[in-house]
Amino acid sequence: MTKQLTRREFAMLPAAAAAAAFIPPAFAQGAAPLITRAIPGSGEPLPAVGLGTAEIFDSADESTKQKAAAVVQALVGNGGTLIDTASTYGDAETVLGDVISAAGLRDKIFIATKLESPDAAELKRSLARLKTAKLDLLQLHNVSNAAQSLAAFKAWKAQGVCRYIGITSTFHRDFPAVEAVLRREKPDFVQIDYSLDNREAEKRILPLAGEMKAGVLTALPFGRGRLFRAVRGKELPDWASGFAGSWAQFFLKYLLGDPRVTAVIPGTSDPAHMVDNLGAMRGALPDDDQRRRMVQFVETL
Ligand SMILES: NC(=O)c1ccc[n+]([C@@H]2O[C@H](COP(=O)([O-])OP(=O)(O)OC[C@H]3O[C@@H](n4cnc5c(N)ncnc54)[C@H](OP(=O)(O)O)[C@@H]3O)[C@@H](O)[C@H]2O)c1
């Protein structure tokens, strides 16, 4: 699942000419190692920067599909594999299914989607829209009740419908329910909102995920763009130049500096932003002192 495209494979892709512009020299030469994280339940390495698709691919029109194709090419062409979507993100599953199958990329992508409930009809619809017989990760969206069961998800995993199962939430009032389900049902992944200016997950969810050996995906890593608005017009601090070449990399590397984070899933509809975000998957990560300094910095904004 994590195999990168050879230059020949890449050249054969339909949008190769446009996408080639997004390959930085380091990737073309295969020079800089990618940061991957082992999925705790299996040891499978997962490239640590993926793509979120809430809102941006909502409509299955031609212009959205073209944008999605360029973003997906930029992801795969620069070593990424993970795409996170959901049955409720408008037409996003359909857009992704069309783009991935047209480019023959299914075996290069780790597809994570979400269902609102353990509903076989909803699952069937997601599989059809994504044009795949098997998902990489199937998540229960927005867990809000401590009694929610993952029995059906476990049965689907046993049947080979998905390779991993997970739960998600971005509502802090629901974190006690997330903790209860994480502890009792032991999913392979928990997806939670976590960003440099929103660190609630550090208190209980990350420690529990570590204890339960669940992988962590961080939703809303830029706070829906809030962090970019906070630093508009500001230069990156000098002390960050050893690990970040852009604000996006600064924000994402704060999260990846925590080894319990398996992958970050920033949303973008812009291929150049996708490449920028994937740059957080290379080079040094901030150490604990630098991470504390990053928090102090953001608290003064
Ligand atoms: N409950 C849940 O399970 C849940 C809830 C919320 C989100 N999620 C997941 O988390 C993902 C991420 O959240 P999100 O997409 O809402 O918000 P986000 O990733 O925090 O921020 C996205 C915003 O950042 C901008 N951006 C991205 N890369 C950039 C760059 N390099 N430079 C400048 N701006 C950049 C995007 O604009 P451009 O398009 O212009 O790049 C967009 O406005 C979602 O897509 C979804 O997959 C899950």
Write a brief caption for the model.
This protein is of the alpha/beta class.
Keywords:
301 residues, alpha/beta, 8-stranded parallel β-sheet, globular, disordered N terminus, binds NADP nicotinamide-adenine-dinucleotide phosphate
Describe the protein's architecture and organization:
This protein is an alpha/beta fold. Helices cover 38% and strands 14% of the residues. The chain has 13 helices and ten strands. It has an eight-stranded parallel sheet, with helices on one face. A two-stranded antiparallel ribbon has the order 1-2. Helix 8 (175-185) links the parallel strand 7 and strand 8. Helix 4 runs parallel beside helix 12 and helix 8 packs parallel to helix 9. The longest helix has 16 residues, at 62-77. It is globular, with a radius of gyration of 18 Å. The N and C termini lie far apart (40 Å). Mean pLDDT is 92; it is low at 1-30.
Q: Give the topology string: H per helix, E per strand.
A: HHHEEEHEHEHEHEHEHEHHEHH
Helical proportion, percent range: 25-40%
Query: Which molecules are bound in this entry?
Result: NADP nicotinamide-adenine-dinucleotide phosphate
**Beta-strand content estimate:** 5-15%
The whole-angstrom Rg is 18 Å
Spatial order of the strands in the main sheet?
3-4-5-6-7-8-9-10
What is the distance, rounded to the nearest whole angstrom, between the alpha carbons of the first and last residues?
40 Å
Main sheet attributes: strand count, strand direction, barrel closure: 8 strands, parallel
Average pLDDT across residues?
92
Output the number of helix runs.
Answer: 13
Form type: globular
The total count of strands amounts to 10
Uncertain segments are: 1-30
Main structural class: alpha/beta
